[in-house]
Automatic annotation (TrEMBL):
Reactions accelerated catalytically: 2-(N(omega)-L-arginino)succinate = fumarate + L-arginine
Subcellular localization: Cytoplasm
Main location: cytoplasm
Pathway(s): Amino-acid biosynthesis; L-arginine biosynthesis; L-arginine from L-ornithine and carbamoyl phosphate: step 3/3
Encoding gene per record: argH
Enzyme class: lyase
GO terms of molecular function: argininosuccinate lyase activity
Species annotation: Weissella paramesenteroides ATCC 33313
One of the GO biological process terms: L-arginine biosynthetic process via ornithine
GO cellular component, one term: cytosol
Protein's UniProt name: Argininosuccinate lyase
């Protein structure tokens, strides 16, 4: 049989495998709620502009509202026969109110309809994701506040570099998540334009009111060009890019959690709730949740690249390729929500072993820069100071004695400028406390960063 909606110019129906291949209902039924919202706004506009009679409009809107109720009750049944969510709903409306349902599609195409649905849907999803991100940021700040005085070695090249406050390390992630949130806000803004009324690509001869529709749907504005309106998927790329970057941040954090949770580091312990055992090794407690978040980062990157590749080389305006915009985005939304909320709870439940963190600073020479700065402060050119301390570290490693345990005479053999005030400088706590530069690990600076963060979060 030929298609009910567009079969007029066809002699033969589609093969059943073609019907299945074309159909998007299996995944775009996720847009049902927003398709109905979009259609109600369109019907209201058509009535408002008198394109539809008051009677037809009332019937159509009533029917759509009925479908909304059925959708919420889980009573709408979709079918491959009607290809996508738009034609499924039109068919259901026809069953509900009869042939007047056919008037709903006046001055509209599935091209602007699918774009409208997706814009509305994305706005809602992005708001949800931003609030999950806010909860994550709250936890990061709370953890930081509890750990201002917890010292650890800061790393570069995964080698002990300089003593830092654990809170400072956590607040670095806070900054990343702040930028993530801005990126999601910006993706929201790009989704906040209405394509409705662009019709197939060229607009319509009917005296529609796009302002009216856009307002009814709470869009900030309208696409200015009808060809762009139906072919633009930049807002989805913005979302996928924001998602990929957020996942990259979570993945880096997870990588550190996995390492720190290892026997070798032993800096933290992941709660049992977020770990799993081994089917053979009874002693195992594996950080699977963190590993899976790290792993799922790949599929989110994949969705970004998949859509970029789909769009590359597409001629204007609508092409069926664009139907491929959905699954990767849907999968990304599901992945992101699960990852952000699980990560938040996992982070909240992590036990920090501050004694182990602090102990790692005992004999590690991470105070070498302090000594070089000390000598520079006493007038030795920093380059020379660096040389002297390098030799001291070399001597210390060879003789298994950290800088702070060398006697004053030993130290002075390398550089007579060293006096007995040096031991204060070598203390890791002082190393942190003495850092006063903006954004540094100094306790006061870290407390300031936390205070700022808390103020920002309470404004949300
Ligand atoms: N299911 C389609 C999509 O997601 C809807 C638009 C179809 N338009 C068309 N002219 N075939 O892109």
């Amino acid at each position: 049989a030929t298609n009910q909606m567009w079969g007029g110019r066809f002699e033969k129906g589609n093969r059943s495998d073609v019907v299945a291949f074309n159909a998007s209902i299996a995944f775009d039924q996720r847009l049902a709620k927003h398709d109905l919202i979009g259609s109600i706004a369109h019907a209201k506009m058509l009535t408002h502009t008198k394109i539809l009679s008051e009677l037809d409009g009332t019937q159509i809107i009533g029917g759509l509202e009925k479908l909304q109720e059925k959708l919420m009750a889980g009573k709408l049944v979709f079918s491959d026969t009607f290809e996508d969510i738009h034609m499924n709903i039109e068919h259901l409306l026809q069953q509900e109110i009869g042939d007047v349902a056919g008037k709903l599609h006046t001055a509209r195409s599935r091209n602007d309809q699918t774009a409208t649905d997706m814009h509305l849907f994305m706005k809602d999803e992005i708001v949800t994701i931003m609030s999950l991100l806010d909860e994550l940021m709250e936890v990061v700040v709370t953890k930081a506040e509890m750990n201002v005085n917890t010292l650890m070695a800061g790393y570069t090249h995964l080698q002990h570099a300089q003593p830092i406050s654990y809170a400072h390390y956590l607040m670095a992630y806070y900054e990343m998540f702040t930028r993530d949130r801005e990126r999601f806000q910006s993706a929201y803004n790009s989704a906040d334009q209405s394509p409705l009324g662009a019709a197939a690509l060229a607009g319509t001869t009917f005296p529609i009111d796009r302002e009216y529709s856009a307002q009814a749907l709470h869009f900030a504005g309208n696409y200015q060009n009808s060809i762009d309106a139906v072919s633009d998927r930049d807002y989805l790329l913005d979302f996928l890019h924001a998602s990929a970057t957020l996942m990259m941040h979570l993945s880096r954090f997870c990588e550190e959690i996995i390492q720190w949770n290892s026997y070798e580091f032993g800096y933290i312990e992941i709660s049992d709730e977020f770990a799993t055992g081994s089917s053979i090794m009874p002693q195992k407690k594996n950080p699977d949740v963190a590993e899976l978040i790290r792993g799922k980062t790949g599929r989110v990157y994949g969705s970004l690249f998949s859509l970029l590749t789909t769009l590359k080389g597409l001629p204007l305006a609508y092409d069926k390729d664009l139907q491929e915009d959905k699954e990767g985005v849907f999968d990304t939304i599901d992945t992101l929500k699960a990852c952000v909320s699980l990560f938040t709870d996992m982070l909240a439940s992590i036990q920090v072993k501050s004694d182990k963190l602090q102990a790692s600073l005992k004999d590690d020479f991470s105070n070498a820069t302090e000594l070089a700065d000390y000598l520079a402060d006493k007038g030795l050119p920093f380059r020379q100071a660096h040389q002297v301390v390098g030799k001291l570290v070399h001597y210390g490693i060879a003789n298994n004695v950290p800088l702070q345990k060398m006697s004053l005479t030993q130290l002075q053999e390398f550089e007579p400028l060293i006096a007995d005030d040096v031991y204060d400088v070598l203390d890791p706590e002082n190393a942190v406390a003495r850092r006063i530069s903006l954004g540094s690990t100094g306790f006061d600076q870290v407390k300031y960063q936390i205070k700022q963060a808390k103020e920002t979060l309470t404004q949300k």
